[in-house]
Amino acid sequence: MRRYEAWIPPTKREPKEGGTPMDISITPSSLQVKTPADCTELRLPAEVRLVPSSCRGLQYVAGDGLHLRLQVWAESNAKLISMFNQSSQARECCTFYCQSCGEVVIRDRKLLRVLPLPSENWGALVGEWCCHPDPFANKPLHPQENDCFIGDSFFLVNLRSDLWQPRPELAPVETHCLSSENHFKLKPKANTKVICKRCKVMLGETMSSETTKFYMTEIIIQPSERNFPIIPRSQFVQSVIAQCLVELSTARSTFRFTIQGHDGKVYILLWLLNSDSLVIESLGSSRGITKFPLLEDILKADSSSAWNAVKVLYQPCVKSRNEKLSSAWESDISIHALTLPSATCLELLLILSRNNATLPPSLRYMNSFQVAFLKM
């Protein structure tokens, strides 16, 4: 049980300053606000229960609604959208789907090794570990036929054994001789994009003649005996990004991120504040249907109306906005870059903006940053 801050949107008719009486009732399963002109009841999911006696800091803010602090009990049997389980899905036959339309990209691939890739700066650190010349110089990490390598926001797979299967569309590719050791490799430019045959969404990029990078936000990997899971696009993108942020912050103590497109442009600056928030959508009532979008810092819950979430600060960098701050973040080695398809970066920015708009005006900004919640 933890204390959290809640916000109840204003009633349909804004109370006049110093004039309208308001009756507020708090039960373990609901909050009700009555005025002479209106009644709004917010019913909570079954797994979330309030402690009415813990109510503190009750105040009505014009334009915002009702602010208060109290404690809750919440169950912690959360189920996240699965990106890819390294332990349980290794050695299983898996099928890769386009998340947007369900088109099969790779069918019945048996993965014998599912391994995390080192950080993007691993090559620069080898010199600190070895007292002799770098043994890994000019030896890129490419997966073998039954491998899947997992990066920060992508999967690397070998498509050599899938030549007989329907494949995603590959744009014309230029080959470039980089060195005598590397022979011929594919230079990842715009013409290396991997496109879904059905919906034409960019799924990834070709990295060599046999290795393909698939972005986590575009691909669902399922055991072959399971059907394609239909997940709303916005929900899937939020969950993948939120889980990436949490994993990177835990593994590398990194809390600031740049979200950049495959074209190298920075679209969003993200600052992870916490990963233990809960977003609750009101179940409504017969007399008033409204949203209850924010319950912070409580235990995890799993429901169609209650979502684990991460709280982030963000700055958009499109149309030359925040150029100086973006440049400063890009040059800061403590800030981690996540690369996604450019269209997905814009999707994420729209999700953040829409989420920010659901918050009361007084909670939408922290210093110069905008506030948002990404559901996990």
From TrEMBL:
Its EC number is 2.3.2.26. It catalyses: S-ubiquitinyl-[E2 ubiquitin-conjugating enzyme]-L-cysteine + [acceptor protein]-L-lysine = [E2 ubiquitin-conjugating enzyme]-L-cysteine + N(6)-ubiquitinyl-[acceptor protein]-L-lysine. Residues 1-25 are annotated as: Disordered. Pfam families: HECT_2. E3 ubiquitin-protein ligase which accepts ubiquitin from specific E2 ubiquitin-conjugating enzymes, and transfers it to substrates, generally promoting their degradation by the proteasome. Independently of its E3 ubiquitin-protein ligase activity, acts as an inhibitor of CPSF3 endonuclease activity by blocking CPSF3 active site. Interacts with UBE2C/UbcH10 (E2 ubiquitin-conjugating enzyme). In vitro, interacts with cyclin-B. This is E3 ubiquitin-protein ligase E3D. It comes from Felis catus (Cat).
